[in-house]
Amino acid sequence: MNKYLFSPIQIRSLELKNRIVLSPMCQYSASNGFTNAWHMVHLGKFSQGGFGLIFTEATAVIPEGRITHGDLGIWSNDHINGFAEICYFVHQNNCKMGVQLGHAGRKASMQRPWHGNGPLNQDDFDRGENNWQISAPSALPLDENWLEPNELSINDIEGLKSHWEAAFNRSVEAGFDVIEIHAAHGYLIHEFLSPLTNQRSDQYGGTFDNRMRLLKEIVEIARKTIPESMPLFVRISSTDGIENGWSIEDSVELAKLLKNLGVDVIDCSSGGLMGSATAAKIKRGPGFQVPLSDEIKNNSDIKTMAVGLITDAKFANDIVQDQKCDLVAIGREALFNPNWALHSEIELNEDSNFNNWPNQYGWWLDKRKKMFNK
Predict the structure, then answer these.
(1) Is the Cβ–Cβ distance between 192 and 211 less than 8 Å?
(2) How many whole angstroms from its chain centre is CA 310?
(3) CATH number of the domain that residue 220 is part of
(4) Most buried of the four, 128, 141, 237, 326, by CB within 10 Å?
(5) What is the value of pTM for the model shown?
(6) Range of the structural domain that residue 43 is part of
(7) Residues identified as active-site
(8) Which residues contact 11 (CB under 8 A, 6 or more apart)?
(9) What does the pLDDT look like over 118-170, one tens digit per residue?
C-alpha cells in the first residue's frame, strides 16, 4: 500500500515525518495553569508512539480564559519552563510539538467533566474551586443557571490582544514547533464568529466581516510575532449545526481570508456553541467531520486537518490519499491506544520489523517476533 498516511509533509520550514497528529485533549489536571508529571507522561508517550505532531490541550492566554480550574495556561513567564521540558522530551523522539492557545469565553469557570461538566456548585466550592468573572462578545449565558458573562468593551478587546501576543512569544520561547489558535467549540473566538452568540453592534459584531475581525486581528498579531518559518494552525467549528448559525459556507470564506493572512492549516472540527462539542446535535459516525475538511480544503486551497472518530488506519490513509485532508488528528482513540501510529504503520505494511519504534521497545519486540517465527 502506498504510504500516504506515513509520507512526510512540509509546512513552511517544518517537516513532519507523517500525517498523524495528536488532537488537543483537555486533561483538567493542572494547578494554576502549570504543567506537572501528568502532562509530561501523557504527551510524551505519544511521541514514543509514533505520532508526527503532538498538541497540548487548550492552553489559556489569561487565567480567566480557562475552561476549568484544571486547565493549562501560559499567561506568565513562569509557565515556560514546564512546557520547554515537554518539548525537549518530545523532540528526543523525532516528533514535533504544538501548543493550542485559547480563551474559553462564556464557557470559562465551569466544572471538570468528572465533577459534572456544568456550572460550579457547592461541591466544587468545598474543593476550593470558586467562580471567576467571565467575559464574552455579548452578555449571553450559555444556558439557564450558567454564569452571565460581561460583554467585552473595545478596551477589553485591546487588552486581550496584548495577552495573545505575549502568549505567542512565550510559546516560541518554550520551543514549540507549531501554534494553533483555538477558534472552535463555543469558546471566545467562536462566540465572536457565530451570529447566535455575537449580538454586538460595533465593529466586532453584526456583519460577517465584523464578526471575523477579532480572529483576523489575532492571526495578524501571531504572524508578526512568531518566526516566519513557524506554521500557524487555526481550529474552527466548521459548522454550528444549529439553524441560522455559523455554516460550512462561512468556513470556506473564512479559510480563504486566513490563508491570505498567513495561516497554514485549518483544523476542521464542528459544534460546541451551545454546550459540549461532543454533545452537539450533529450526526456522528466514523470520520463524520471529514466532509467538512474536504470542502474547506478543496474550496479554499488551504491545507486542512481532519478530526473526529477516526479510528481505522486504512480509513485514515484513504482520506489523505483522496486529498480530503493533509493531516489526520487522532483523539480519544489515542487515549485507548497511545501506540496507534506505530500499530497503523504495521497494519499498512510500512514497518514489519519495528524499525520505527523507540530502540528501547523495538529491539525487544523484533526479537520476540523472530522467536515466534522460528
Answers:
(1) yes
(2) 16
(3) 3.20.20.70
(4) 237
(5) 0.96
(6) 17-338
(7) 187
(8) 178, 231, 264, 265, 303
(9) 999 999 999 999 999 999 999 999 999 999 999 999 999 999 999 999 999 99
